[in-house]
Specification:
Helix content is about 30%, strand content about 25%. The chain has 9 helices and 20 strands. The strands form 4 sheets. The chain has an 8-stranded mixed beta sheet. A hairpin with a 6-residue loop joins strand 19 and strand 20. Helix 1 runs parallel beside helix 5, helix 1 runs parallel beside helix 9 and helix 2 packs across helix 9.
Length: about 375
């Protein structure tokens, strides 16, 4: 027998963004139900590294959102801290040539003007930060605001702390609308959930949920692999990545791109990324990609050549064509709010996104301008093919 449920807001998606939206909406006084066709953190969140980054973002709306999110994550860390493996370890972006270091410094200058702490380090200072880096590197920029959490743990703790009713293993099959075209809830295989507001936190499937409400949102999957080593003593102190990672994040290319990203974890294994390619939802294992990740990591940290890889996993980053997420109310469907399309930054941007959503849901003025994140900014004819 199906059940009928009512609440103030239905959050579709139990990943990091959905869990954060539930927490901030509940703390704003709303009754929340979270629904997901899989488990908590069963999609992109569970396949992520848990990065909370400002270092890879150029000045603009996404960096503003990252700085807001970083402050909110720091607040949550006081509440959850060790339970979510929050580490304020900082990031180090390494240049391989003097010209590359000069370009990094120019990039950092713009970020500093926007409120980012960025410190140029060269010579012995660099090797004091990361003694096991490959010798002969000209320098790097250190970003003390970069942090990390364990994403699946963080999503679970935030969802639980929200007090929201959590309905997992329940697919949304339709968005219910009034005769006037406003949201009145969602339909699932096990009954309807009635609410005047729906938050689309469906990640890579955010475009499909938007289509159920009759609107266009061109979210595409961008596949990435992560290589995981055996547990090791802490030999990588920061999140360390090569300068070309920033260009890969901003690229529009569908082709395979890899740039070394290496970081230790509280549990011991070293995580090695990062690859990006648009191949639809192809979940097949790619040995060439994993080999490229391993080769890039050992160029940065030669000691990793002797480390054993325990496993590799993959996930799909929810990609929008202009590299900005869709956040806020959809003017085409009253009551529909979007919180998706964060690409590889959803863990870090979840808190700021959730705060803005909660403010919009409760009629407050969002503390960041939502115009750059408008969900209706993509004409239907511009949709790309995966």
């Amino acid at each position: 027998m199906s059940e009928r449920l009512t609440c103030d807001v239905v959050v579709v998606g139990a990943g990091m963004v959905g869990a954060a939206c539930a927490l901030y909406a509940a703390r704003a006084g709303l009754r929340v139900i979270v629904v997901d066709r899989g488990p908590v953190a069963g999609g992109t969140t569970g396949a992520g590294e848990g990065n909370l980054l400002v270092s890879d973002k150029e000045p603009g709306p996404e960096l503003d959102l990252a700085l807001l999110s970083a402050r909110l994550w720091a607040d949550l860390a006081e509440e959850f801290g060790p339970a979510v493996e929050y580490e304020a370890k900082g990031g180090v972006v390494v240049a391989s040539t003097p010209d590359g270091l000069a370009a990094l410094e120019r990039f950092a200058d713009g970020q500093r003007a926007a409120g980012v702490v960025a410190e140029t380090v060269v010579g012995e200072e660099l090797y004091g930060l990361e003694p096991r880096l490959a010798p002969g590197l000209p320098g790097a920029v250190r970003y003390p605001q970069d942090c990390q959490v364990m994403p699946a743990l963080a999503a679970a703790h935030l969802a639980r702390a929200s007090g929201a009713r959590l309905l997992t293993g329940r697919a949304v099959t339709d968005v219910l609308l009034t005769p006037g075209g406003a949201v009145r809830g969602v339909r699932t295989g096990r009954g309807d959930i009635h609410a005047p507001a729906v938050v689309n936190a469906a990640g890579t499937w955010g475009g499909e949920l938007a289509a159920l409400a009759g609107v266009h949102l061109p979210v595409l999957p961008r596949r990435g692999f992560v290589l995981v080593t055996e547990p090791l003593p802490r030999m990588v102190r920061h999140k360390v990545y090569a300068a070309d990672y920033v260009a890969d994040v901003a690229s529009d290319s569908a082709a395979l791109q890899t740039s070394p990203v290496v970081e230790g974890t509280a549990a011991g294994p070293v995580l090695i990324g990062a690859s990006r390619e648009r191949v639809g939802f192809d979940r097949s294992f790619s040995l060439p990609v994993v080999r490229a990740l391993a080769a890039g990591a050992t160029r940065l940290f030669p000691f990793l050549a002797d480390a054993r890889a325990m496993r590799a996993y993959l996930g799909f980053r929810p990609y929008l064509p202009d590299h900005l997420p869709a956040i806020g109310p959809d003017p085409r469907v009253p009551g529909l709010h979007h919180a998706c399309g964060h690409e590889g930054a959803g863990i870090g941007l979840a808190t700021g996104t959730a705060q803005l959503i909660a403010q919009a849901l409760t009629g407050k003025t969002p503390e960041l301008d939502l115009a750059p994140f408008r969900p209706d900014r993509f004409p239907a004819a511009e949709e790309e093919t995966a």
